[in-house]
Write a structure and sequence with these properties.
It is an enzyme of class 2 (transferase). Its EC number is 2.7.11.1. The chain crosses the membrane at residues 441-461. Residues 1-25 form the signal peptide. The chain has 748 residues and is α+β, with helices and mostly antiparallel strands. The protein has six domains: 24-148, Bulb-type lectin domain (Agglutinin, subunit A, Orthogonal Prism); 153-291, Agglutinin, subunit A; 294-427, no CATH class; 430-471; 509-598, Phosphorylase Kinase, domain 1 (2-Layer Sandwich), CATH 3.30.200.20; 605-725, Orthogonal Bundle (Transferase(Phosphotransferase), domain 1), CATH 1.10.510. It is 24% helix and 25% strand. The protein contains 18 helices and 38 strands. Strands 25-24-32-28-33-30-31-29 form an eight-stranded mixed sheet, covered by helices on one side. It has a five-stranded antiparallel sheet with strand order 34-35-36-38-37, with helices on both faces. A hairpin with a 2-residue loop joins strand 37 and strand 38. Helix 13 runs antiparallel to helix 15 (670-683). It is globular and about 95 Å long. The N and C termini lie far apart (110 Å). Mean pLDDT is 77; it is low at 1-23, 228-232, 469-502, 604-610, 635-639 and 717-748. The chain binds 2-acetamido-2-deoxy-beta-D-glucopyranose (NAG) (8 copies). One 2-acetamido-2-deoxy-beta-D-glucopyranose (NAG) binds next to loops.
Amino acid sequence: MGIISALVLMVFLHLSCNCLNFGTALDTISLSKSIKDPEAITSRGDVFTLGFFSLANSTNRYVGIWYSKSIPEESVIWVANRDKPLKDESGVVMISENGNLVVLNGQKEVLWSSNVKVPVASVSAQLLDSGNLVLQDNNSSDGVRLWESFQQPSNAFVPTMKIRTNVRTGERVQLTSWKSPSDPSNGSFSIGLGILSIAQIFIWNNTRPYWRSGPWNGQIFLGIRVQRDYSFFLDGMNLVDDKEGSFYITYAAASNKSFFSYFLLDSQGNLTRRNWNDEKRNWDIFWSPQITECDIYGKCGAFGSCNSENPSICSCLKGFQPKNKEEWNRGKWTSGCVRIKPLQCERINSGTKSGKEDGFLKLERTKVPDFPEWSANLEDKCKEQCLSNCSCIAYAYDPGIGCMSWSHNLVDIQKFRNGGIDLYVRLAHSELDENTNIRRIIIITVVTGVVAIAISTFFLWRWMAKHRAMKITSEEKLIFNNKGKAHAKCLSDDTVGENINEDKLQQQLPIFKIEELAIATKDFNLSNKLGQGGFGPVYKGTLKDGQKIAVKRLSRASGQGFEEFMNEVLLISKLQHRNLVRLLGCCIEGEEKMLVYEYMPNKSLDAFIFEKSDVFSYGVLLLEIVSGRRNTSFYNEEHPLSLVRYAWKLWNEDNILALPDKVVCDPRHYEEILRCIHVALLCVEESAKDRPTISAVLSMLHSEIVDLPSPKQPAFAERENSSDTESPQINQNIYSINDVTVTKMDGR
Ligand SMILES: *[C@@H]1O[C@H](CO)[C@@H](O)[C@H](O)[C@H]1NC(C)=O
Ligand SMILES: *[C@@H]1O[C@H](CO)[C@@H](O)[C@H](O)[C@H]1NC(C)=O
Ligand SMILES: *[C@@H]1O[C@H](CO)[C@@H](O)[C@H](O)[C@H]1NC(C)=O
Ligand SMILES: *[C@@H]1O[C@H](CO)[C@@H](O)[C@H](O)[C@H]1NC(C)=O
Ligand SMILES: *[C@@H]1O[C@H](CO)[C@@H](O)[C@H](O)[C@H]1NC(C)=O
Ligand SMILES: *[C@@H]1O[C@H](CO)[C@@H](O)[C@H](O)[C@H]1NC(C)=O
Ligand SMILES: *[C@@H]1O[C@H](CO)[C@@H](O)[C@H](O)[C@H]1NC(C)=O
Ligand SMILES: *[C@@H]1O[C@H](CO)[C@@H](O)[C@H](O)[C@H]1NC(C)=O
């Protein structure tokens, strides 16, 4: 009996306890509910916890917010009393008499306060699932926030937080690094939005810029290098003009509620992204925009350009020389470079005779310098305006931004391998060596011409093969005949290269209007974003007729030009196979290029598109073009070698120049021919895993990828010796589709 009454009493006590707290949620601190070390409150969905914690090697206690799944040391996103630690475990968090949220020590001294003028006595502080701690008028129905922790960030940038700068008042909401991993007081680094005409993200070391994102063009930051996981940074990232004088960057929470990700500015000034790994029960630490020394702001001084791939990373822009040669040669670059020959307008101003008009030097794929000034001009007007104003020393144009010009020293220029935009630097006429430029243009035109012919021959060949096959097989009807004519506009665009078979493409592929796609994807709403490919984001959408689609919106700075775009369209439209995602159409309007695929539920589109579509047969075709003979032609000869095997044999004998057809085998083209053969051998490697993707093949042919790996044994060298019954069959599939002849290229 005694036990039972004790149990009843306990239940009663428990109930009455709850009764006393009635109405006060576990996520709220109110007048009637404070927390004492080691108590805590958690947000409604148990995403975040607010409580007391200590850091390694220290007995100091802090009040902060961390991810509930993680331990505080690993994931504190906000600290209240970051400058004034509690020295023991007697701390309290409560609502003070004047309506502020405060942290008190055992002696009732206020170590931290939300420090706002509260007009009402009845307030409460609630911890939301976003990680925001919000002080609200308990009595107000409109939910006016008196104070929120998101307005006073620590060193973490979590989804839905806004890093804000008010252009009118100069007020900034920014992150401040910790002093060290065991001391959360203000360190020397901060990150925020700097806005002088165009918005850019900055990391500052105290007050000096330490890193810069480059201008925001509506989709990406132009100065963040295109790298494999750069899309990571852009995922849902957005820069917003609130039209009330302030700009902010923010990003949406992942749609998967158990996936957590945030950015952290560490005490060394490095920005990293951390993703929660549920299996390891810890954080995977990812990306940092600061990868090379060139990412440090102003590394090469004024008019210097940084290229991390050069042995000596800094060089002066053409037409400039080191200000202090001796320092520069020692690797001390900060004093920068100075102009060698004065500009025409400077000479006019100083009264000397004027010469020819100044011109512009084009620098490709650059991170444009700091202090851009914005004007709404179009591209050609941009140049004109700059030329006509003597204080304008450089300009650049980005369709997402408009015209940018510079009138100060050009600082923090970087040369990228991919990404960036073209910068035009003003130089005196005599500095612009036009002859070399023209020669360069001729060489480039010849090389790309040869490559383009090879590629388009391939596509033409593929198309003809397909076309014949389609005539024969009545089931394989063209899918889009009916829709195509409605919007013929897109492909009748003059810019369509002649090599591409426009008419046929037009017949097969409908062209979507941009409005149609905008409606289908709810204006490319973030919530419809499926992911990010190498060339741009992919959105889910529903057409008017109810068909589900996936729209790949090629980012403007993707570097994918018209030619690559059309190649992708052609290539994919040819791959109508039941295991492959189907291309439904495309859209080209102004700067926008989009591909519309059928929507594949369940899996990422990446699994279906390319990022290896019959690379092998492409490799064989390359060999066929270069050698001028068909792969199978060898079977009739004395030595039953396939072309692939023959090529491999010559390659290993260092005699590969015996392969090309005499028609193409001109010593002036040796380098290109060798590159073609090299790429071809990479395509036919035994293991499909080792073969490059078709997009990599294109880059290799365009010499964007300079160093090619050595080819490994091709797929046929061995099989022919073995009695593998599969190989003849594979053979046929690949080469014996029909008897189309390959057009030979004639050098002259
Ligand atoms: C705040 O409002 C809730 C009801 O909305 C009430 O239960 C609670 O007691 C109030 N707290 C204070 C401190 O007034
Ligand atoms: C804590 O102290 C140990 C030993 O002095 C040291 O190795 C460790 O790096 C320290 N941890 C932190 C976070 O400072
Ligand atoms: C709460 O609001 C009601 C009406 O909106 C008002 O009558 C009441 O005095 C308020 N109470 C407090 C504590 O502010
Ligand atoms: C720490 O940095 C924040 C943000 O820059 C600033 O508001 C605050 O006053 C700083 N605290 C101290 C003690 O300097
Ligand atoms: C940050 O600035 C301080 C001086 O303000 C300097 O001593 C320190 O080296 C800088 N840190 C980095 C990483 O550049
Ligand atoms: C959501 O994320 C968790 C953790 O990353 C993962 O295990 C789970 O499979 C994801 N769920 C969906 C539907 O993607
Ligand atoms: C962090 O920054 C320091 C100096 O600023 C640098 O030496 C270090 O490599 C960076 N760490 C990472 C992980 O990027
Ligand atoms: C020339 O450029 C400077 C700097 O951008 C600007 O302040 C000035 O107004 C311009 N002058 C004219 C005539 O446009």
